Amino acid sequence: MPAAGYYEWTVTETGKQPHFIYEPDAALAMAGIVSAWPDPSKAEDDPEKWRLSTAIITRDSHVAPGEVHDRMPACITPDGYDDWLGGHLDVDALMQLLDRESYAVAHDLEHYEVSRDVNSVRNNGPHLLDPLPRPADESAAHGV
């Protein structure tokens, strides 16, 4: 499942602080599963009888996002797409693939704090990806 990134939260003295975690040079490809199931409220001949559900697989975090959260989406590099989607690997091989690929992706992940507006599903828009301004003393320490 392609994504620009994802949010995780840290607990601070003033409440939960969201962070946007992303790969600076590419979209993330999150490993997921898809399930089709019949909607029992629909007639057998209804073309909308079948529903699709999706879920993103998570793993223990590796390297960069670990300082924000102990879990992360399992991610796959372009080199791993065929193996993930091909249907030719057994469960053990798929788990090894997810470990290897997620580890490779995690090395490139970066994060920054974002507005707490992301905490409400009522809020939507590109501004939710904007980094919070750094305090002046922290900006000076980073040479900004």
Q: Could you describe the 3D structure shown?
A:
The structure is a single chain. The protein has 144 residues and is of the alpha+beta class. It has a single domain (2-30, 58-141), classed as SOS response associated peptidase-like (hypothetical protein yedk fold), CATH 3.90.1680.10. The chain has helices at residues 81-85, 91-106, 136-141; strands at residues 2-3, 5-12, 15-22, 28-29, 32-38, 50-56, 58-60, 71-73, 110-113. The strands form four sheets. It has a three-stranded antiparallel beta sheet, with no helix packed on it. The model has no long low-confidence stretch (mean pLDDT 89). Belongs to the SOS response-associated peptidase family.
Label this structure with key terms.
two-stranded antiparallel ribbon; 3 helices; three-stranded antiparallel β-sheet; hypothetical protein yedk fold; alpha+beta; SRAP-like; 144 residues; EC 3.4.-.-; globular; protease
Produce a short descriptive summary.
By secondary structure, the protein is an alpha+beta fold. The protein has helices at 81-85, 91-106, 136-141; strands spanning 2-3, 5-12, 15-22, 28-29, 32-38, 50-56, 58-60, 71-73, 110-113.
Q: Helices, strands, pairings?
A:
Blueprint: E1 2-3, E2 5-12, E3 15-22, E4 28-29, E5 32-38, E6 50-56, E7 58-60, E8 71-73, H1 81-85, H2 91-106, E9 110-113, H3 136-141
Antiparallel strand pairs: 1-4, 2-3, 3-9, 5-6, 7-8
GO molecular function: lyase activity; peptidase activity; single-stranded DNA binding
Organism: Rathayibacter rubneri
Pfam families: SRAP
